[in-house]
Amino acid sequence: MITALCSVVWMTRLGTFLFLRISRDGKDARFDAIKQNWLSFLGAWTLQAAWVVLTQLPVLMLNSSNDAKPVGWIDALALLAWAVGFFFEFKADLEKFTFRGDPNNKDKFITSGVWALSQHPNYFGEICM
Fold this sequence. Notes:
By secondary structure, the chain is mainly α. 67% of the residues lie in helices and 0% in strands. Helix 1 runs parallel beside helix 3 (73-100) and helix 3 packs antiparallel against helix 4. The chain starts with a helix and ends with a helix.
């Protein structure tokens, strides 16, 4: 139940963030070059779908087992890692969204906040989760 809840929280936050970003920007420029070839565009979407399936597979496997063991310290440690990852991904996305919203930052790379710690703190968060 905990992993399913964490999964829903993660998907809802990420989906909402991506929707707001596309609503503000009107498009995702990362796809501009591959949109010219439908097969390349299909490949990008297929890879993203495969990533979602792979990240959700452990949740599906856990939910399909009939395990009544109580939550232990390893589970608590894993939940802490998930919470740290969620925080980093959320903070990184929020900081970059705000940074990109300022016209003075056009074509600049964010290097403040959690972005001072890593070039891709949102991916660090994703991996932790």
